[in-house]
Amino acid sequence: MIKARKARTAATARSNGNFYTQSKKLLLQKLRSSSFDPNHYRIVYMGDSWAAEGNNTGVAVLNEALNVTGRTKPLYTLHGGDAVFTGSKEQLNFFVKKVKSKIPSIPLFVSVGNHEATFQNGTSSLTNFKNIIGPKELHFVVRTPFVKVIALSSVSANGGHPYGLSQSELNFLKKELNTNVKNIIITTHVPPSDWEVGRAQFNKLIQKNNVKLLIFSHVHAYRKFKYQGKDAIISGGAGAALDKNQINHILILTVRNGNITTKKVPISWQL
Questions:
Q1: Is the pLDDT assigned to residue 232 strictly greater than 70?
Q2: What is the pLDDT of residue 161?
Q3: Domain extent listing, the chain
Q4: Where are the alpha helices (DSSP H) in 225-267?
Q5: What are the Cα distances from residue 270, in Å, to 234, 247, 267?
Q6: Which of 28, 96, 110, 119 places its Cα 20 to 30 Å from the Cα of 22?
Q7: Is the pLDDT of residue 9 over 60?
Q8: Which residues of 59-81 are buried (b: 16+ CB within 10 A; e: fewer)?
Q9: Which of 45, 58, 83 shows the shortest CA–CA distance to 253?
Q10: Contacts of 256 (CB under 8 A, 6+ apart)
Q11: What mean pLDDT value characterizes the chain?
Q12: Which fold has domain 2-29+38-266?
């Protein structure tokens, strides 16, 4: 009975608007649930899937990444971008359908990547992303107890380049950093090392503010490092062709009593 009720609730939340809007509604329902423990919950992060019919390896990895996510039972999931390969309507709808079938009751938010910003017949596929995935502004915030995730667009409409943060993205970041939250996480697809615009202003903003963690993808690898004195992770192992000596993986972020820990979880898959 309880499982059936949860399934109906998730189905209702998933029925209207683009995927971002549906996930926001679903997250709100979960936060209001009597079973939600604000002092102990998880967030899953994955990046770079290249999901498309015909990409058998990428789809197999994504399937298992979503299976592991489902067993982890996170409050929600973040995807770091390059969820698909070309940004076509067909590939974006394929990705959404896959997520809904594998983790119907878990919200998933996508930070736009360069593969969602490809050119097709002279038109940027970002229009498809805005309509199918969303949000239309390309940046967003996810607020949960003790944690605020700020997701930014580091790609442009003309095939992704120039990489980096536009002035509007920097203005959005500055506004959202003006907050009293214990843990601020900033995520965007392209790591600052590859940016062509906005890096200096970004560096100043994160140095002046209480940023707990930076998460990037784009590089098909796992790396944990310091950036401008802040903890940073690159995680791009959810289905795209891996860099040398790397493995498929996702991240699990555990929030316990207001503190965040991260864990890399390998993904084993087969065709």
A1: yes
A2: 82
A3: 2-29+38-266
A4: none
A5: 24, 14, 10
A6: 119
A7: no
A8: bbbbbbbbebbbebebbbbbbbb
A9: 45
A10: 39, 40
A11: 94
A12: Purple Acid Phosphatase; chain A, domain 2 (3.60.21)
